[in-house]
Write a structure and sequence with these properties.
- Helices cover 63% and strands 0% of the residues.
- The protein folds into 2 domains: 1-75, no CATH class; 78-229, Leucine-rich Repeat Variant (Alpha Horseshoe), CATH 1.25.10.90.
- The protein is built from 15 helices and no strands.
- It is mostly helical and 229 residues long.
């Protein structure tokens, strides 16, 4: 399989309308999109699952090629997945690839993967920190891991937009699944005003909270200076 053959296949699946839609969501002019819908990319990743080494040699000229690199890497067994995870996570440069980089092998090795999450959550690079928070969201929103989640929320730099949004998303899920514990943590005021308020807003949009819970959360909003991001 050659790079040209992969591009030919991807362009055969191009959807111009989806490309424009996705480009507006990613908001990064340096990322070039072909416009291939996610179900098709997932199917291609399954079809090419034995081609990881080939894909790793390809340039990162197109979003879809890079996304497939991460998708193929995520199919590795846990010991192989963690062997180069730091290098892979360091390549993340947009929220869409970051959020789509989910390895199912982590679910059976959560304790073993926690040291990586702890390191990534205070890395300083926006999308590395977002990856840590999204990983917690995917596999760790359970009562036993709430202390880990709260610690990661405090380590991550919530003043960076994409880190802050991931933190808010994670905190909102905690509020939805473990309202009492999440409420008590919010009341401690340890999150930045943006993350704190965005988490409340996201949680209040959920159908899984009662009207009374949503009203209580509204009363916890922090005053901000200068508005949001």
């Amino acid at each position: 399989m050659t790079y040209e053959e992969v591009l030919e296949r991807l362009f055969s699946e191009q959807d111009e309308g989806y490309r424009e839609f996705q480009s507006a969501l990613i908001k990064n002019d340096s990322i070039h999109l072909i416009g291939v819908r996610m179900p098709i990319l997932r199917r291609l990743a399954r079809e090419w699952r034995g081609e990881l080494d080939v894909f790793l040699a390809f340039p990162d000229e197109w979003y879809e090629v890079t996304f497939l690199k991460f998708s193929l890497y995520a199919l590795l067994p846990f010991d192989m997945f963690t062997a180069n995870i730091c290098e892979m996570v360091g390549l993340l440069d947009n929220w869409a690839t970051t959020d789509g980089f989910h390895a199912k092998c982590i679910a059976k090795h959560r304790e073993e993967f926690l040291p990586y999450i702890r390191a990534f959550s205070c890395d300083g690079r926006e999308f590395v920190e977002r990856y840590a928070l999204v990983s917690l969201l995917h596999d760790y929103v359970e009562e036993q891991y709430l202390p880990e989640i709260f610690a990661a929320l405090e380590r991550a730099d919530g003043t960076k937009y994409y880190t802050g949004m991931a933190a808010a998303w994670l905190m909102a899920e905690v509020l939805v699944k473990y309202y009492d514990e999440g409420r008590e943590y919010l009341k401690k005021g340890r999150l930045s005003p943006f993350v704190h308020n965005a988490a409340i807003r996201k949680a209040r949009e959920s159908f899984r909270l009662t009207k009374a819970q949503k009203e209580e959360l509204k009363s916890f909003k922090k005053a901000t200076k200068g508005g949001n991001f």
